[in-house]
Here is the input.
Amino acid sequence: MSGFAPNDLEAFWLPFTPNREFRRAPRLLVGAEGVWYRTADGRRVLDAAAGLWCCNAGHGHPRIVEAIRRRAGVLDYAPPFQFAHPDAFTLAARLRDLFPGDLDHAFFCNSGSEAVDTALKIALAYHRARGEGQRVRLIGRARGYHGVGFGGLSVGGIGANRRLFGPLLPGVDHLPHTLLEANRFARGRPPRGAELADALEDLLERHGSETVAAVIVEPVAGSIGVYPPPVGYLERLREITARHGILLIFDEVITAFGRLGAGSAAEALGVRPDMITLAKGLTSGTVPMGGVMVRREIHRVLVEESPAPEWGIELPHGYTYSAHPLATAAALATLDVYRDEDLFARAAALAPVFEERLHALRDALHVRDIRNLGLMGAVELEPRPGAPGARGFDAMRRAFFGHDLLIRVTGDTIALSPPLVTGEAELELLFARLEAVLRELD
Ligand code: PXG
Here is the structure.
């Protein structure tokens, strides 16, 4: 076990964690460098999850650390309402250049959950400003994860996350998820399932397409356990939404900033949404930050052509810490690192090796499916009879305590998202350790 515990494990209520089990055997991380975590009992643990899908540049990158440090000593805080600081503009312009086409305005917040709620609100306000205030419905997808705000939870489709919290937003419906039995062990984008996007036509027929404001999907569903989109699926969603005047939002909280070997999934997969939500890799996980990239037309309608008087606020939305100086400093340094170390290309080059090693686990005990795209991978295990999630949880614990490997599990699915700086030797070590974990699982 950990060999170390802080004096008191009672006061802190851990998020999305079995708290009682944690107190018995706490997993405490006290340092991090590159692709390694250091534990309270002095072990070095290989990070196969980029923290939580976020530390794409690796841990403790000196340029990012220094930028945060320097900024903290110069400008600790600037109010984001009615005032601003220069880095916020620089960052927005850098992001405009990174994202494809006319996704050229950035709205900042502090997390993926806030990014999703922001995008949904912008969608509703946009239609209303255009005289289509009847467009109030939002469509998500079964098994989608869009954070934990009431908006994101409403369009999200993971039952366990929703059930406790009441009726959520009205007027929300969901597309079917895209996991097909026939695609088991497919590599990359699975060949079957583009027609699942046609379910959107059915929803539009049911509700009246003129009542729908936006469709939101993760281009690759992450949290549920890596569901890459079937070939042609996202293209079809784009075609249907465009035809009906409905906005398409890509939730790229996980997929942006190199995870798929490009700046965004929109670029990697060649499909252009109307908004993109961001967080995680935006600062490589170092300082909380989220954002929404918005197409020019939406910004034009809501801001440039706003009927508000000159002293009137065009969109009553924002957060105390929108574009916080420490976050913008971290993001700017992170974007420099991505560019100067060519990390998106490095991820693209590593992806085939990752795919090869991942699919070599196919014949390991209990494995029922393997999925991957870019540097996102999942090994889905057969659940233990009558105890869904137990085997996955056991894998995570054994990996951490017995094999010095940090993995993410969701139910009985092991999710991998190594930092983009992971070298081939480290990747080899990652899979050797994961194999050892799978060998000892009962
Ligand atoms: N959208 C997507 C697509 C996400 O993956 C969020 C929104 C919410 O971001 P914040 O910053 O509010 O947490 C996420 C977050 C998991 C896991 O189980 C994934 C996330 C968060 C926690 C756990 O893999 N992604």
User: Anything to note?
Assistant: The chain has a mean pLDDT of 97. The domain at 19-57+342-440 is CATH 3.90.1150.10 (Aspartate Aminotransferase, domain 1). The two ends are 19 Å apart (CA to CA). Residues 52-53, 111-113, 116, 145-147, 218, 222-223, 251, 253-254, 279, 408, 410, 415 surround PXG (CB under 6 Å).
